[in-house]
Amino acid sequence: MLDFTIHTKVFFGENALDALRTINIKKAFVVTDPFMVQSGAINNLTDILDDLQVPYSIFHDIVPDPPIENVGDGVIAFLKADPDTVIALGGGSAIDAAKAISEFALKISGKSNAHCIAIPTTSGTGSEVTSFAVISDKQNNVKHPLVSDSLLPDIAILDPKLVITVPKIVTADTGMDVLTHAMEAYVSTKSNDFSDALAEKAIRLVCENLLCAYSDGTNLFAREKIHNASCIAGMAFNNTSLGLNHGLAHSLGAQFKIAHGRINAILLPHIIKFNAQVKDHDSETYNDAAIKYANISKMLNFPASNISEAVNSLVTAIIKLQKDMNMPTSLCEQGINKEDLNLFKKEIAKNALLDATTKTNPRTPTINEVLQIIEDIY
Ligand code: NAD
């Protein structure tokens, strides 16, 4: 028996932030990053809280890939504030940190619950609907994906006006993160009819709108579509988990401080090839992952006269999308030093195999295969 649950209530579309006016909040603890405060973006939230006369405090120290220490400081601030509602405003880093802060603070205080409202300002991680929170151990260069249903936000608010200011480079990185989530959910060993429906929709939305959101960040239509795609992909992978792409992205990203979406994007064409195991010519048998990748190619009208061609077309289209958004397609282009890579690659491969997300990859990798992928992406 399988099950599919979406715990989080999602408000979306223009002026979705007004949903806050319909929610009963007694005392809010806002978790965000310094950019949100410096840019004034926080006012979109605090103006409404002021209007509603809701008391609040703001913890605005979250840094990208939030480290354990960041979460620890947040727990102290949370306990001091004693809120009934946590509001996370920011990218995946702020939302993940808010989820972890709330989780640990509630355990320490013995309180049973605090409502969690997640308001993403990047279109990438889907953290607003997932039971994941990724916390970094900067001393050991490791990223830990915490996984628990208690990390699921109660409410997600997807307001496209909050993502208009996302710079081109972050739009590209986070958009490719969405595509990777949907692709990994689609071929995960736990994929099913429900998650497939969500993954297919998210992939279509990204392929039809990401370049437009990248080229013209003020295009509210494209921004909204990618914002929705991010959340839809989050719903899919929350049910299926992810795969080797994320396992390797966590360990490579932590070691070389590469933005999460960018390292996912560098890996994606190589992971598809590894999972599908297709040759350049048609063959008699194909594995399930190859057939599913081919479905995506057909859905997107890429050249797909046989499964091999369809998988190769998908890989080609992904690389073209990366290039059209001026993204690096290798570790070398990303500026990683080959000697550094050689020094750390065994450790990186070991950590990737231990990462919780690797377990649901459609093809079980050996350490030598992971090392080969690391070589290939250089
Ligand atoms: P991020 O939250 O680290 O933000 C990246 C940068 O964009 C920051 O400098 C931030 O200030 C800036 N930014 C955010 N919103 C902006 C806006 N509207 N305008 C201008 N600048 C803005 O990036 P992210 O990619 O959203 O999150 C990455 C983190 O999420 C990583 O730690 C990753 O491991 C984690 N993650 C979590 C999940 C999950 O399910 N919980 C899934 C994937 C990734």
Characterize the structure shown.
The chain has 13 helices and 8 strands. The mean pLDDT is 96. The chain has 2 domains: 155 residues, 3-Layer(aba) Sandwich (Rossmann fold); 209 residues, Up-down Bundle (Dehydroquinate synthase-like, alpha domain), CATH 1.20.1090. The strands form 2 sheets. The chain has a 6-stranded parallel beta sheet, sandwiched between helices. Helix content is 52%, strand content 11%. The protein has 378 residues and is an alpha/beta fold. The chain binds nicotinamide-adenine-dinucleotide. Nicotinamide-adenine-dinucleotide binds next to helix 4, strand 6, helix 5 and helix 9. The site of nicotinamide-adenine-dinucleotide has 31 residues, from helix 4, strand 6, helix 5 and helix 9.
Compact summary:
With 378 residues, this protein is an alpha/beta fold. The protein has helices at 34-38, 43-51, 68-81, 92-109, 168-187, 193-215, 220-240, 244-256, 260-276, 288-299, 307-324, 338-354, 367-377; strands spanning 9-12, 28-31, 56-59, 85-90, 115-120, 132-137, 142-147, 155-158.
Which helices and strands occur, and which strands form pairs?
Layout: E1 9-12, E2 28-31, H1 34-38, H2 43-51, E3 56-59, H3 68-81, E4 85-90, H4 92-109, E5 115-120, E6 132-137, E7 142-147, E8 155-158, H5 168-187, H6 193-215, H7 220-240, H8 244-256, H9 260-276, H10 288-299, H11 307-324, H12 338-354, H13 367-377
Parallel strand pairs: 1-8, 2-3, 2-4, 4-5, 5-8
Antiparallel strand pairs: 6-7
The structure holds nicotinamide-adenine-dinucleotide.
